[in-house]
């Protein structure tokens, strides 16, 4: 890949790149719709992601090109920028905007991006390209940012420059991921633990439902509001900042305060899912992948029945996995209503899995899903 991309760079810019970087995408292994309730999530970096090649130029401009998109841009090096429209280069431009508030760069840059991660499918290609840019500038110009500052900077770009109100999980996972490790991140205080997640004979299959995520945003906001309602009603008796401060036992003592039946189901998912993350971390610690897989299925079931964010496409994938003997766990990952599912798939079964799942999915849904095989990989690095 590196050599191929180097040639592309040479072709596009007429000079060799002087640095190559890679930043992965991420999946959330378990702990869904938990981040905005101050609980635990368990993301990991994948081996699909975004490459960034660069070289300095003497023209005092930043040139943005991506193999994934046709639009290109040449933008003068200044001390501040505003978002120029919906084009992709606003993601890295937002990173320049943040960094140039504090630093001046000695030269312009020619940049080439390439992502082999499905874009716009919930594997966080956006966090990947933002952190890729931040990591590269920090490394190349020795700007002195601490490692923890880069995902925070990238999140700020996504929130303020791009205008997408995401939490910290994605940027954190793509910056901090490690091979065969998962991150248990407390979304309330950002404390985190890196835990062993050796998948042994299993790979991470990532199944993109290819369903347009039209409903996703409005439904997502609806779920956030329902959790806020549950929190307000519980706070008539107790004092909580977040739903995830309650475990299942304590929740049972106060859940009668929640008046609306569907709000009660949402809150029940949140409390139990948060518990499941603790159990999942314990299972990994004991090397018990079978239990981990069982918890993945339980998570999906809860997201289907209690949280109602799965939909026919994600359910079709997980239903197939339950009956497929070489998968030990599967669930939707990300916000839901489409996007991707993940499955723990026995190594060596990739082709058969892809073929059988494709037949099943097309029959049930009417169009194919896309299947990617990944390992748990490293966070941002110079390659
Ligand atoms: P997701 O993060 O789920 O993949 P988003 O809609 O949040 O989806 O972010 C996708 C956007 O990020 C793309 O539309 C594009 O603007 C930008 N992006 C991601 N990867 C690349 C890439 N390799 N090249 C150019 N832009 C990219
Ligand atoms: Mg995104």
Automatic annotation (TrEMBL):
Q: What is its EC number?
A: 2.7.1.6
Transferase among keywords: yes
Q: Where does substrate bind?
A: 32-35, 220
Database matches in InterPro entries: Galactokinase, Galactokinase_bac, Galactokinase_CS, GalKase_N, GHMP_kinase_C_dom, GHMP_kinase_C_sf, GHMP_kinase_N_dom, GHMP_knse_ATP-bd_CS
Residues annotated as binding ATP are: 66, 120-126
Write out the annotated subcellular location: Cytoplasm
Instruction: Give the UniProt keywords, A-Z.
Output: ATP-binding, Carbohydrate metabolism, Cytoplasm, Galactose metabolism, Kinase, Magnesium, Metal-binding, Nucleotide-binding, Transferase
Q: Which SUPFAM superfamilies does this chain map to?
A: GHMP Kinase, C-terminal domain, Ribosomal protein S5 domain 2-like
The GHMP kinase C-terminal domain covers which part of the protein?
Answer: 280-361
What is one cellular component GO term in this UniProt entry?
A: cytosol
Q: What class of enzyme is it?
A: transferase
Q: What is the name listed in the Swiss-Prot or TrEMBL entry for this protein?
A: Galactokinase
Q: Which organism is it from?
A: Pedobacter frigoris
